[in-house]
Amino acid sequence: MKIGILSFQGGVIEHIKHIEALNSSAVEIKNPDQLDDIDGIILPGGESTTIGKLLKDTNMMIPLREKILNGLPVWGTCAGMILLANNIENSDKSYLRVIDITVRRNAYGSQIDSFSENALIKDVSPHKIPLVFIRAPFITRLGSDVESLCKVNGNTVAAKYKNILVTSFHPELTENLDFHKYFLSQCRQLVKS
Predict the structure, then answer these.
(1) 135 is in an annotated binding site
(2) Most CB within 10 Å of its CB: which of 59, 103, 134, 178?
(3) Which domain holds residue 180?
């Protein structure tokens, strides 16, 4: 398996280390040509407005969107979730628009309000796993076909639709590999089908 990590900013190296720890290869993605040679892609955290602008400036927005709509497995963490969402609360901007969710940016507050929580996500692990929230968004509306995977304090913080996975939190900032293992298993299933 070869997993691309969108490499404009954010937790790129941390995602790469987790993917490699699971005996898969990870490659930094910085231009549209690199999208043809991967089995899945992770859109890491960072600043969604900046990453969105860079997707546009590098002419990656349309090819990446088309790849995802044609089945390329994608996982967006934090800012990555915002980039994938159809709608962003209190904003007329949107980016890739590939999953029917509405997200609230910085829903838990600023950097100072960052927190960790342990939660059971049955699809991902039989044990509670650590969730790290940093200026995190959450989902305020799920489309009818979108499955909620995890709620924290009544708010949806992980969801799935076909080949698209989104999380408000940062599994790459923990030692736990379960969420990356789950994403790789999704990639394998989708590559086979």
Answers:
(1) yes
(2) 103
(3) 2-192
